[in-house]
Amino acid sequence: MKAITVEPKKAGTARYEDIPEPDVHEGSVLVEAVAVGVCGTDVEIVEGKYGWAPPGKERLVLGHESLGRVIDPGPSSSLKKGDLVVGIVRRPDPIPCPNCAVGEWDMCRNGQYTERGIKEIHGFMSERWRIEPEYAIKVDPTLGILGVLLEPTTVVTKAWAHVISVGVRTFWEPRTVLVTGAGPIGLLAALIGRRRGLDVHVVDRITSGTKPELVRDLGATYHSCAVSALGFEPDIIIECTGVGQVIAESIQSVSSCGIICLTGVGQGGHVSKAATADVAASAVLKNTVIIGSVNANKRHWYRAGEILARADRTWLSRLITRREKPENFKQALERKPDDIKVVIQFAEA
Ligand code: BGC
C-alpha cells in the first residue's frame, strides 16, 4: 500500500512510497484512511526538526490528525464495518508513570509516551492503518470529512478544561477571552469560548478573508493589531501562535487573576523588549497563571466529539480550506496565506 513516510531529524526525506500492509500487532481494527489533517508538527517533522521513527526503523509513517472507515473491526464489539473513526494519538509510557497509569497520558511525567505519526509509532498517512479498539474513537457519521477536525478539537478541549480547573482556584467570573492566532486551533478555541457564553476576541496578523469572517460568524470580535494595542484586559488568553512577542504582550495584558494558556510551540524569534523580571513582576502582582497544554486524554476526546457533533457544519467546513491528494503531499505541507486546515484526502468520506 501507499504511505507518506519520512526519516525523522533529516530534512527533505519525506516521500510517497509503497510500504507493507499494517501489521496486526498495531491493532485488531483495520481501517481505510479517508483523510489526514496537516499541522505545524508535521511540517516540523518533514523539516527534520522533530519526530522519532519506531525503534529499530529508519522511517516513520507521518500523520496524526486522522479520519478513517472501519474495514474490519476484528473481535471488537463496539465497532462495526463502515464506522467513521479517528485514532487517539498518544499511548501511555510503558512503566507507567502515575499519570499514564490513570489514563492521563497527556500529562505523562517521564516523557516515555509514544505518539502516532510523531514519536515512535507509525501515523495515519497510509492507505490502510490498524488500531487498538480502545484507541479508536467513533465520530458522528453526519460529520463526514469534518471528523478530521476531531484531533485538533481535542487539543483545545483539553486547554479549556485546564483553564477552567485553574480558574476555580478562586472566586472567578470570566467574561472576556482573547485567542491569539486564527489558525485551526485558535478558531476551535474561539468556538468553545462562544459555547461557554464568553465575549470572545481573536487576534491575528491577517486583515481580511475567511479568518475574520469565521470569527464574526461565531459572534466573536476580530482584531488585527498587537495584543498590547487591544485596549482591554482579557480574563483568559488562549495563546495559539507560539510567537515570543505575542506571549510576552499577553502576559502583560491579561486581567488581574487572569489565566494564559499556551498551546503554540514556537522557537527563537526576536527577544521581547520586556525584561523577564518585568513580565514576572506583572504576573506576581496580578496573580496570573500561565499554563502550557499539550495533547489530550480520553475524557477530552469524548468531549471534543460532542463539541464537533453539535457544531454548525457550514462553519466547520470552511475551516478546511484545501484538500490535496496523497501524491501531492508536498503541496499539502506548504503553508499558503489563506490556509486554515489543509487535509490530505485518501478516499471519499
Ligand atoms: C499533536 C499532539 C502532540 C503534540 C506534541 C501536536 O501537534 O496534536 O497530539 O502531543 O503535537 O508531539
Portion of residues in helices? 25-40%
Helix/strand order: EEEHEEEEHEEEEHEHEHEEHEHEHHEHE
Summing up helix and strand content along with how strands pair, one would put the structural category as: alpha/beta
Which geometry do the CA atoms define? globular
Spans of at least 5 consecutive residues whose pLDDT stays below 50 are none
Describe the fold and architecture.
- The chain is α/β, with parallel strands linked by helices.
- The protein has helices spanning 40-46, 98-101, 150-167, 184-195, 210-217, 244-253, 276-285, 298-310, 313-317, 329-333, and strands at residues 2-6, 15-18, 29-38, 60-61, 65-72, 84-87, 90-91, 114-116, 120-121, 128-131, 136-138, 176-180, 199-203, 221-223, 236-239, 259-262, 289-292, 320-324, 341-345.
- Strands 3, 5, 6, 10, 11, 18 and 19 form a seven-stranded mixed β-sheet that branches. It has a six-stranded parallel β-sheet with strand order 14-13-12-15-16-17, sandwiched between helices.
- Helix 5 (210-217) links the parallel strand 13 (199-203) and strand 14 (221-223).
- Helix 3 (150-167) crosses helix 4 and helix 3 (150-167) crosses helix 8.
- The longest helix has 18 residues, at 150-167.
- The protein is globular, with a radius of gyration of 20 Å.
- The site of beta-D-glucopyranose has 11 residues, from helix 3.
Write the layout of secondary structure elements.
Layout: E1 2-6, E2 15-18, E3 29-38, H1 40-46, E4 60-61, E5 65-72, E6 84-87, E7 90-91, H2 98-101, E8 114-116, E9 120-121, E10 128-131, E11 136-138, H3 150-167, E12 176-180, H4 184-195, E13 199-203, H5 210-217, E14 221-223, E15 236-239, H6 244-253, E16 259-262, H7 276-285, E17 289-292, H8 298-310, H9 313-317, E18 320-324, H10 329-333, E19 341-345
Parallel strand pairs: 8-9, 12-13, 12-15, 13-14, 15-16, 16-17, 18-19
Antiparallel strand pairs: 1-2, 1-4, 3-5, 3-10, 3-19, 5-6, 6-11, 7-8
The structure holds beta-D-glucopyranose (BGC).
Residues 39, 41, 64, 89-90, 115, 118, 151, 155, 294-295 line the site of beta-D-glucopyranose (BGC).
